[in-house]
Write a structure and sequence with these properties.
This protein is an all-alpha fold. It is built from 23 helices and no strands. The chain has two domains: 9-249 and 348-482, no CATH class; 258-346, no CATH class. It starts with 11 loop residues before the first helix and ends in a 5-residue tail after the last helix.
């Protein structure tokens, strides 16, 4: 799972230096028990409360956190300026914004591909296939959940959630209860699926990069992750409405270039993962290269569509019957203007992107003030490894798991492989407890607006928590030899 405050798989490499530097700077300020620190925490809490009340206030979630980010850093800069304390405020802030740029580019490309798939009717074709299968709402609930679980280790939890939520919105046909419960199922399944793969989540990637665990050891979390998904899904299944979506007798088709977009998206993910794993390049580099793949495809489709437009116009002027390929071109509305890549970029979920900006800067400010370092030390010195690692997951549903896990890795507490696997699991799936606890949840709040909300997820937090506890117990049982 990737946290609200962050996103998909490969960004950990870029964000780890940020938190490390912030933690070092925080020791110089030591404002965790001073009024600036208390005020910063208060600002952050109020902003998150407003995010949670979005469905009642209609205040988009990006607005309070972007404002909070500005207030927190102004507070820090003002204190340093007028108290005479020496602290690299500008350096840390600049680095924080620089790291967000990597996140921004990664997400922008992923969202652009999703928009291109939507335009090419990929999700409409999938919806048509699911409808033709005669699946009931309850069967669809499980099918989509398992798809999320198996896709997220490969294409990360955020992209998985975006793709499958689009399918659910199409298949659900306005059934509020089905869409809401299935979106919760997608978030839980996607976060669980990303927990047992080194590439499925930022936290797993961070631990793997430190060589604390080997590549193969992560797959010992497969059974606990599966339990984390199945337990709440089985409970929510009982509330999924009976019946089936209204049958759509029309056959949806992939528009021209649909399969090519899918293949290029797979190539983009492969480029990002291989570039990061083999060449130590930041993941956004591979994603931006993938955007170039899509741009070139759209260029080709636009040029060929333009030629067909011209040929079709010529046939119309001559009153002759156009050949079948031109007739299909006309019927499907494949005119040249459809293949505008920048139109897909403009359709990205900008509220979500700005939300990430605000949260990353808020968390970076709190880390600069010293709160994350104090929190990590308190957990491991006073609670012990098992309770501390369990608490990390709960905290990651409220505060970004990236700085929390980075603080844990930086501390490098003396723990067994089993404990390192435990904190990897909890940090990965803990964000499922709240809708704002993972990038998948945050993205779905934007994509399924009105159906999947903070409060709709909160109603089932108890079921998700049962899965969370069960997965920890199963891990300690099946992987007892690692402790």
């Amino acid at each position: 799972m990737t946290k609200p405050l962050l996103t998909t798989m490969g960004l950990a490499g870029g964000l780890f230096p940020l938190v490390a530097d912030a933690a070092e700077s925080a020791s110089n300020l030591n404002l965790t028990t001073a009024w600036p620190g208390f005020l910063a925490v208060g600002i952050f809490v109020v902003a998150y409360l407003l995010v949670g009340l979005e469905e009642y206030t209609d205040l988009r979630k990006s607005k309070p956190v972007v404002l909070a980010a500005g207030l927190i850093w102004i507070l820090i800069a003002a204190y340093v300026r007028f108290s005479g304390v020496s602290a690299p405020v500008e350096e840390v802030l600049t680095e924080t914004v620089g790291e967000f740029a990597g996140l921004f580019l990664f997400l922008l490309v992923a969202m652009t591909y999703v928009n291109a798939m939507t335009d090419r009717n990929v999700f409409g074709a999938l919806r048509s296939w699911l409808s033709a299968g005669g699946f009931s709402y309850r069967q669809l609930f499980w099918i989509v959940g398992f798809l999320a679980f198996v896709l997220s280790p490969v294409i990360d939890n955020l992209t998985t959630a975006l793709v499958l939520s689009a399918v659910v919105l199409a298949v659900g046909d306005g059934n509020r209860r089905f869409i809401s419960l299935t979106c919760i199922n997608i978030v839980v399944a996607a976060n669980a699926g990303g927990a047992f793969s080194p590439f499925g989540d930022i936290t797993t990637l961070m631990v793997w990069q430190t060589d604390v665990l080997s590549f193969g050891q992560f797959f010992k979390l497969f059974i606990p992750a599966l339990v984390n998904f199945v337990v709440p899904a089985a409970i929510m299944y009982l509330a999924v409405p009976r019946g089936a979506p209204e049958s759509d007798k029309s056959t949806a088709f992939l528009r021209r270039g649909g399969w090519a977009v899918l293949l290029l998206f797979a190539a983009t993910i492969a480029t990002a993962v291989a570039g990061h794993s083999v060449l130590d390049l930041p993941p956004y580099m591979g994603m931006m290269m993938g955007l170039a793949y899509l741009q070139l495809l759209m260029y080709y489709l636009m040029k060929t569509a333009l030629r067909k437009d011209e040929a079709l116009a010529a046939y119309k002027e001559s009153d002759e019957m156009p050949p079948p390929d031109l007739l299909r071109h006309q019927e499907r509305g494949e005119s040249a203007p459809r293949f505008n890549i920048f139109g897909h970029v403009a359709e990205a979920e900008w509220d979500t992107l700005l939300f990430f900006y605000g949260v990353i800067l808020c968390v970076g400010g709190l880390a600069f003030l010293g709160y994350l370092a104090v929190l990590s030390n308190t957990l491991y010195l006073q609670l012990g490894a098992t309770w501390a690692n369990t608490a990390v997951g709960v905290l990651s549903s409220i505060v970004d798991n990236i700085p929390i896990m980075a603080a844990v890795v930086k501390m490098n507490p003396q723990m067994s492989d089993g404990q390192w696997l435990l904190v990897t699991l909890t940090a990965g799936v803990g964000g499922s407890l709240l809708s704002i606890g993972s990038a998948a949840g945050v993205a779905l709040m934007g994509q399924a607006r009105g159906y999947y909300t903070f409060m709709s997820h909160l109603k089932w937090t108890w079921a998700v928590a049962l899965g969370y506890v069960a997965s920890i117990g199963v891990h300690m049982l099946v992987n007892a030899d690692t402790f």
